[in-house]
TrEMBL record:
Protein name per the record: Uncharacterized protein DUF2132
InterPro entries: DNA-binding_VF530-like, SAP_dom_sf
Annotated GO MF terms: DNA binding
Gene3D superfamilies in alphabetical order: SAP domain
Highest taxon listed in the record's lineage: Bacteria
One matching Pfam family: VF530
Species: Scandinavium goeteborgense
Amino acid sequence: MTNPSSKDPLHGVTLEALLNTLVNKYGWPELAKRIKINCFKSDPSIKSSLKFLRRTPWARKEVEDLYIDFLHDEQENNDHEGPWANWQAKKPQD
């Protein structure tokens, strides 16, 4: 998804992939609540949203910021659920 040597979390992520990730995570109704743009409220689709976001820099920035927040939340969850997080639960019973 992203290049580990790049500090930009959006490096290598297309707007379409970013939007699909957010739609899968939150759904259209929640996206419409979080980002007040009509393309998320009225008959939402990936195609129409991409068209709008590519032409509207402020809206694209809002979506990118939400995606970055999502990545940080995912990273925090993964940090708490490291490989040894549930080692006792996985330990065989004698």
